[in-house]
Amino acid sequence: NNNNNDDDDAKKEISTEKDDYQNALVTVQIIPILLQGFLNQTTTSSGSGGGGGKRGKAAAAAAETTISAHVKFCFWCIMIQPLVLRLKKSSTTQHDDDDHQDEEEEELKLSILQSIHASLQLLLQHDIYSPSSAAVKVDVDEQDEDFKFLSWIMECMLHYMTTLCNTTKKEKKKSGGEEEEAEILGIFQTLLQLNHHLIHCHLSSLLLFANYCLTSTTSSKDTTTTAAASSFLSSIIDTYHKLRQFGHLLTFILDILPSSPYKEEEKMMTKKKEDGIIMMKLRHQLLQQEGKNASLAHILSRMLQNQNTIRTLSSSIRNCPSGQTTSLWNIYNDWIQSRVGTSSLQEEEEEETTQSCFLKDEEQNVEFMIDFFILYLRSIRVDRYSAHEIMSLCDVTMKSSVNCLMRVGKKKNTSSSSCLSTNFIKHGLYLCSWLVDLHTRCCFWLNRTTHAEASKSFLLGKGGGGGGEGGDDGSKEDDVLSFLINVAKSVSRIDHGMSSSSQEKQEERNTTASTTAAAATTKNVLMYNDMNLFHAVGALQHLA
């Protein structure tokens, strides 16, 4: 009898737990419905006015709208607060190993995220909170309290985001973590639409997380997460473009890339304390999730492979005010020049094993930045008013960043750094080819297409010593075309029977592959210039 009583008690306890779970799930799901009904009803009530003339109706409607907006927001806060607190509690509580309970908990957390997202969309749809409505409110402190509450929601979502990044991809597929990623990205996007100041201080962390969620797989869940991440990134880019703060957005992106090891801790200390801690956690977690050979630059590069974000970036760059051209250009150029120079110094000072790891990460950072710079070069708007300024900037970059990449690439050729040196040369040639293309567009607008010396001197780097800096022996650096021809000659010698190891052959093939791309682009300039140079590049492409 005692055993039967124990079994009955256990069954009752299980049924009670199921009832509690079902009640919690229903309560969570019904909150957005209650909010929508309340907001629709109050909107209808405020819109229906009585008599008393047009002016009386307008005054009464304005007063009633002002009061109802504050009441609506207070009601919204009361309804949404328990959801956020429950989600915050679940992210800090350790659960048992019971798989059934874990599934129920994950389902409940997903429902909470969906309800928070739907409630925030109602807040945006009914215009209950808007920074532009501050002048309508009687008390300015009301808006401050509203902003503080939304900031609290933002901080809770950031904390849950770092918790979500701790789970592996296999665990996410089992527990529905990918759907949670899509929902939390939607929450961040809605908060951005409500007030961009809510995410401004945490923009670097959010950009990194959104890029991490961008994937190239084709499964339905991955597609949902990728679409949410792409939409969020596009909203960020479009918002900062409209604010004419694209330079700030670019700075936040660069803050994600790690500096040299001895500067990284100092860099984090200069940031806001909370954001610095979140960023350090996020970096560590995402690099663990991505695997052994992962890098932050590799995660960020997904932004430049997604068609939606590429279109938004290109449109924002093309429509940037002309007065921002030089400042944005200098951000790219100065970063590349300084980081490549740092890599060169690190190569000389560090031991070979240490420098190999550092240079590998740094080369990936430089590769991402050059790809980003080339997107800027391809998207920038050139007309007769801006052509002269852009042409001057092309000259500066040829003498600084391109020259620095070529010089570092040719500086050292040890067994551990030869592949990295080849990559630096490849990046220099790739950047050079698009600078030639942009320089040609500028020549067209300045009616210099018939002058042979215009683009030929640019390609040959006349006077391009990097601000007076020469080679190790004080002589001028070789121009790009001479370097291409020397590469072609070396390939020709290998093809005629020179013995070399498989690694050396692979490095030569890597160099000539990048040379082909540069040669194909430079043909456009040389076609209407010196025919001898044109045939030289044609022969180079044939040899490659």
Note poorly predicted spans: 132-142, 217-221, 463-477, 523-537
- Total of helices: 22
Report, as a whole number of angstroms, the end-to-end distance.
89 Å
The structural class is: mainly alpha
GO biological process, one term: ribosome biogenesis
GO cellular component, one term: nucleolus
InterPro entries: Ribosome_Biogenesis_Reg
Jot down its keywords:
544 residues; mainly alpha; elongated; Ribosome_Biogenesis_Reg
What this model shows, in words?
- There is one protein chain.
- The protein is mostly helical and 544 residues long.
- The protein is 78% helix and 0% strand.
- It has two domains: 138-316, no CATH class; 339-543, no CATH class.
- The protein has helices at residues 2-47, 53-92, 99-125, 140-164, 169-175, 177-194, 197-200, 203-213, 220-242, 246-256, 261-270, 273-290, 296-300, 307-318, 325-349, 352-379, 387-411, 418-445, 452-460, 480-495, 502-526, 531-543.
- The longest helix is centred in the N-terminal third of the chain and has 46 residues, at 2-47.
